[in-house]
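Working notes for the structural subgroup meeting. M.R. asked for a predicted model of this chain before we commit to crystallization trials. I am recording the input and output together here so anyone reviewing the notebook later can reproduce the run.

Input as submitted:
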Amino acid sequence: MKIAVVGATGLVGTKILQILEERNFPLTELIPVATEKSIGQKVKYKGNEYSVLGMQTAISMKPDIALFSAGGSTSLEWAPRFAEVGTTVIDNSSAWRMDPNKKLIVPEVNANALTAKDKIIANPNCSTIQMVLVLKPLHLKYKIKRVVVSTYQSVTGTGKKAVDQLMNERNGISGPMAYAYPIDLNLIPQIDVFTDNDYTKEEMKMVNETKKIMSDDNIKVTATAVRVPVMGGHSESVNIEFEHEFDLKELVHLLENSQGIVVQNNVANFEYPMPLNAHNKDAVFVGRIRRDESQANTLNCWIVSDNLRKGAATNAVQIAEYLIHHGLLN
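Returned structure, recorded in token form:
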């Protein structure tokens, strides 16, 4: 089982290597890959050092799976070349997500859509992943009409430059800026570029990806995405309107028994999800579960998850595990 990690030196690539090791992924050969400027760098896996290889070298080795986390333009150029030699690509960028011929997969939600013919598989946006994990069981039971989500997204979602900006500002050090404004002691209500409708690309990703993953274009979604000076993960305030009435205790019980979800909903003891506690965990945490008293059949909840893990690296590794377990690799 040859596994290539493309973008092995980046934040998500490093996290993928960590998660492969933690989950004792059944690989026999690791192929760390990056763009030209990173070739020859060393990465560590299970106590051993590996030299980073270039794209063409990696393709010639015909890996079984390539876990891509190297940006959209890189994925558009190189993912098809890996696929041509029989490699199954699992891509973390937005390049293939809305391609009608590519599957957009959250294993707990829609892995059963995968087949051996899927050679390029898209990993959804981090903030979409954690939300749909909660939405799916609720949709099956109560049928969702509309979702209103406001996100509070960690600087780690932007990358190392943003993390450095936050820590530099916190320590009074001048340095390169990942954002147009200071982020420490601040919130920035813009993630990615603005589109023609004045929503950002991040917000429209949540709208479009949710419908695709849930296989239901009738679900109405509107989003506001905000960058916050936080490290541990993304948080979301989510308002969900259902077609059918719900019993709140039954709904909470449903979430408690759904794969990948941890309910933290004891307000009497001030227990609710926070990025500080979600950090370095694979679960999606949900709490502050309560009725919207302004509207019938409507729920408010608060969803938190480590965006580098379940929101990116872990989800990709889980897809790879599913492919192997179900014999979907040629």
